[in-house]
TrEMBL record:
Source domain of life: Bacteria
Pfam families assigned to the protein according to its UniProt record, in alphabetical order: Fer2, Fer2_2
Cofactors: [2Fe-2S] cluster
Organism for this UniProt entry: Bordetella ansorpii
Keyword Iron: yes
EC number: 1.2.99.2
Protein's name in the database: Xanthine dehydrogenase
Length: 165
């Protein structure tokens, strides 16, 4: 049980420091706040989407210290002191990240709702052990759902960046 003089006991809130896209944010958050809700509602970074809110679709994928995570399943307090990268921090319209450029070149998006999560997952995949074949890429991307069915274009974009095409 927290000490009655602690900030948590007094307000129920936690002091959390998030390093998001190179900017440090000192926040006071409900301990139940997810990283996704904090990014979208507190920091107004709306690129990561709330799809299923159960960790099944991948639309909320961000990088936490370089590893891909579902932000809807990650408590913001767990990310305290960590480096968080969202789609907004990956590239810009003037200087696209190579994966963003590949998604454009290969038409790896349709409605665009899942695109940010797909790109964030794909950029992490490039640094993970993955065999050279499309099936291996599909397996590592299986946590990201595209309801429009742009899977072959997404795989082509990833393979292009990986130098496998």
């Amino acid at each position: 049980m927290p000490d009655s003089s602690s900030p948590v006991a007094a307000t129920g809130a936690l002091d959390v420091t998030l390093h998001v896209n190179g900017t440090t944010h000192a926040l006071r958050l409900d301990p139940r706040a997810t990283l996704l809700d904090t990014l979208r509602e507190t920091l107004h970074l709306t690129g990561s989407k709330k799809g299923c809110d159960h960790g099944q679709c991948g639309a909320c994928t961000v990088h936490l210290d370089g590893r891909r995570v579902n932000a809807c399943l990650t408590l913001a307090a767990v990310a305290d002191g960590c480096q968080v990268t969202t789609i907004e921090g990956l590239g810009s319209p003037e200087a696209l990240h190579p994966m963003q450029a590949a998604f454009v070149a290969h038409d790896g998006y349709q409605c665009g709702y899942c695109t940010a999560g797909q790109i964030m997952s794909a950029t992490a995949l490039v640094n993970e052990p993955c065999g050279p074949h499309d099936d291996e890429v599909r397996e590592l991307m299986s946590g990201n759902i595209c309801r429009c069915g742009a899977y072959s274009n997404i795989v082509a974009a990833i393979q292009d960046v990986r130098g496998k095409r």
